[in-house]
TrEMBL record:
The chain crosses the membrane at residues 267-285, 297-317. It is a multi-pass membrane protein. This is Magnesium transporter. Its main location: membrane. The keyword Magnesium does not apply. Keywords: Cell membrane, Membrane, Transmembrane, Transmembrane helix, Transport. Pfam families: CorA. GO terms for cellular component: plasma membrane. It is found in: Cell membrane. Belongs to the CorA metal ion transporter (MIT) (TC 1.A.35) family. CDD domains: TmCorA-like.
Length: 323
């Protein structure tokens, strides 16, 4: 798979050139009033190294940008920021999480995507349509990217929340309770755990960028404060869903124990009822004289006695809801 590279330039808030070669980047980085966005999709180490050589990136940045299991974080390297996070789609399965690394320079933003699920075209169109936001530079473009990432978190959490609601609705359905509920709850718990590992560190990322917002770009503060609020909400949502799914699992186990106890009560009750005729026939099977021994009425008496006691036990157990 070859690396896909895109370049977009804005000059003075207006759209400029597209798909420039990397050799032009040093010149663009030194030019006032420009903003450049370089996007790499599924790059090889040589592709990232070529970019690093062109704009002077630290070797640790190259390593972190290509690592698939890096934790979401925001780190300052010399005169640029390195931000990494995860994009999520679908239902937060393993294949639905993809790394997104963002390098924020004074006049440029570089994104390294490991997976093609991020709506880069939508972000580009939305950002380009707001001239005032474009004039705010690289930190404004970073906000647009992170805001889209967090919005995708909300969509995924909404789908998971709906699945949890459906699971709760079927919890007391005898046809689907038990192992089926346990399997679904376990699957949802894994998805929620993945979302927690993605969303909780994002609070630190947004907080870091909020603190590092330049005083001359104070117009960006409300944007990042709003993004921080969204990040907090989605993180709290993941925590709430985790508690809910754990409650569902506990309730399902309790219902299983209750069902087992109910079965044991029924088995014990029927065993007691069946024991009555066994005891009476065993008594009448003795080879010694007893009332009704050798008489027809003795047979009918023993039969009536078995039926009567069995009925009494059945009624008694039924009243106690054991049957």
């Amino acid at each position: 798979m070859t690396c896909e590279r895109r370049t977009r330039v804005w000059r003075g808030g207006a759209t400029g050139e597209h798909d420039l070669p990397l050799s032009e980047l040093p010149k663009l980085l030194a030019e006032d009033g420009t903003l450049t966005w370089v996007d790499l999709l599924d790059p090889k180490p040589d592709d990232v190294q070529e970019l690093a050589d062109a704009i002077g990136l630290d070797k640790h940045t190259v390593e972190d940008a290509l690592g698939e299991r890096e934790r979401p974080k925001a780190v300052r390297f010399h005169d640029y920021f390195f931000v990494t996070c995860f994009t999520v789609e679908g239902m937060a399965e393993d294949d639905d999480l993809h790394r997104l690394s963002i390098i924020v320079l004074p006049r440029a933003v570089v994104t390294v995507r490991l997976g093609n699920d991020f709506p880069i075209d939508t972000v580009e169109e939305t950002f380009s349509a707001d001239d005032d936001l474009v004039r705010l530079g690289a930190k404004a473009l970073l906000h647009a990217i992170l805001d889209t990432v967090v919005d995708d978190y909300f969509e995924v959490m909404t789908r998971i929340d709906d699945a949890v609601d459906d699971l709760e609705s079927g919890l007391f359905d005898q046809q689907h309770a038990g192992p089926a509920i346990a399997r679904k709850a376990f699957t949802l718990h894994k998805r929620i755990s993945r979302m927690r590992r993605v969303t909780l560190p994002m609070r630190e990322v947004v907080t870091t960028m909020l603190r590092r917002t330049d005083p001359e770009h104070h117009e960006l503060l409300p944007y990042y404060e709003d993004l921080y609020d969204h990040t907090m909400r989605v993180a709290e949502w993941s925590e709430s869903l985790r508690d809910t799914i754990e409650s569902v699992q506990d309730t399902n186990l309790a219902l299983g124990d209750a069902a087992l106890n109910n079965v044991m009560k029924k088995l014990t009750s029927w065993a007691a009822i069946i024991a009555v005729p066994t005891a009476i026939t065993g008594w009448y099977g003795q080879n010694i004289p007893y009332p009704g021994f050798g008489e027809v009425w003795g047979f009918w008496f023993s039969t009536a006695l078995m039926v009567a006691i069995a009925v009494v036990l059945y009624v008694a157990f039924k009243r106690r809801n054991w049957l």
